């Protein structure tokens, strides 16, 4: 995102030079390659995950419902990425109109923040199931509550991102003969600096930092509980799950949100830019859609067993398998 000059249709020389050279830069090439790889891995991995979660995993516990919600957002991103790749290969020239630009931008950010909130919901579910098993037990095990929570996530994310749905995010640059999509924004997209501050605060702090703190708290306490009470199998799996989730937050989500805030402040008040760094971080934020299936593997015993069956990884005898299931079920929230 580059914040243009108020309502002016002209850009400063630095911005023009940056956009003129961006398509031939090494960063732009790296971004396009990463998007292409993410698209393939996303659609294959999440397509398999969705099939397993919908048709091969039963019962549909709250954790499974949260995973279905997460997979849905990931697949939507996978379907949108080819449009982003085409846009970049055409020299950052968007020719599909303002509405499609808004859909693409909204897909990127709803994927990121719905993923953040869904991971938080999964961590809370595991925390309550392992650390506080009697707290809100009936509510936590309710499918209706899980579905309601997913709907609430979508409402919250779309409410915060509402300006992206109501604004023309395309910007025609006659000097370069191109029309950008969410790469140049006018300051008057929002009515005041305070409105910009509220928008950025909601994205960075409400949709990212707060869920990150809650998720970290939950997994730290889960690991502590399992370290005291469980055997090595449960403890190692919990540590792997926590490590993957925290990796997704720190690698995929944190750089993008930090750079979004820093870049916006620099453009609004100091006419400076972190444009390419932000674009690269947005690219890395999409990697979460490739890592999410690993979260399902360690978070759901049923998903894990079905995946093993499909990949013919059953090396245990039936008796050993039953023993393993009994050991896993002690602290599993399915």
From TrEMBL:
It is a multi-pass membrane protein. The chain crosses the membrane at residues 29-52, 64-83, 103-124, 144-165, 195-220, 241-266, 278-299. It comes from the Eukaryota. GO terms for cellular component: plasma membrane. It holds the Pfam family 7tm_1. Gene3D superfamilies: Rhodopsin 7-helix transmembrane proteins. One of its GO terms (molecular function) is G protein-coupled receptor activity. PROSITE patterns: G_PROTEIN_RECEP_F1_1, G_PROTEIN_RECEP_F1_2. GO terms for biological process: phospholipase C-activating G protein-coupled receptor signaling pathway; positive regulation of Rho protein signal transduction. InterPro entries: GPCR_Rhodpsn (IPR000276), GPCR_Rhodpsn_7TM (IPR017452). Residues 45-296 form the G-protein coupled receptors family 1 profile domain. Keywords: Cell membrane, G-protein coupled receptor, Glycoprotein, Membrane, Receptor, Transducer, Transmembrane, Transmembrane helix. It is found in: Cell membrane. Belongs to the G-protein coupled receptor 1 family. This is P2Y purinoceptor 8. The lineage of its organism: Eukaryota, Metazoa, Chordata, Craniata, Vertebrata.
């Amino acid at each position: 995102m580059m914040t243009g000059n108020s309502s002016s249709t002209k850009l400063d020389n630095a911005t023009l030079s940056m956009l003129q050279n961006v398509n031939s830069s090494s960063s732009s090439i790296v971004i396009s390659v990463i998007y292409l790889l993410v698209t393939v891995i996303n659609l294959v991995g999440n397509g398999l995950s969705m099939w397993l979660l919908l048709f091969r995993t039963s019962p549909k516990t709250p954790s499974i419902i949260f995973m279905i919600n997460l997979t849905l957002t990931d697949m939507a991103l996978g379907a949108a990425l080819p449009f982003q790749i085409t846009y970049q290969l055409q020299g950052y020239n968007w020719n599909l109109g303002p509405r499609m630009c808004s859909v693409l931008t909204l897909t990127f950010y709803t994927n990121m923040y719905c993923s953040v909130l869904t991971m938080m919901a999964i961590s809370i579910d595991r925390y309550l199931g392992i650390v506080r098993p009697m707290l809100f037990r009936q509510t936590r095990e309710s499918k209706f509550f899980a579905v309601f929570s997913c709907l609430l996530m979508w409402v919250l994310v779309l409410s915060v991102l509402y300006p992206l749905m109501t604004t023309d995010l395309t910007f025609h640059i006659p000097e370069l003969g191109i029309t950008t999509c969410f790469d140049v924004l006018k300051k008057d997209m929002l009515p005041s600096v305070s409105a910009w501050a509220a928008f950025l605060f909601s994205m960075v702090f409400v949709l990212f930092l707060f869920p990150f703190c809650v998720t970290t708290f939950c997994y730290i306490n889960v690991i502590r509980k399992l370290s005291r009470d469980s055997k090595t199998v449960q403890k190692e799996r919990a540590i792997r799950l926590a490590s993957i989730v925290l990796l997704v937050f720190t690698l995929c989500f944190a750089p993008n949100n930090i750079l979004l805030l820093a870049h916006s402040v620099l453009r609004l008040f100091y006419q400076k830019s972190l444009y390419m760094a932000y674009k690269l971080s947005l690219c890395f934020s999409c990697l979460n859609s490739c890592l999410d299936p690993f979260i399902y593997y360690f978070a759901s015993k049923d998903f894990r067993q079905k995946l093993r069956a499909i990949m013919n990884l059953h090396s245990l005898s039936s008796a050993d398998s039953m023993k393993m299931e009994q050991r896993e079920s002690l602290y599993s929230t399915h």
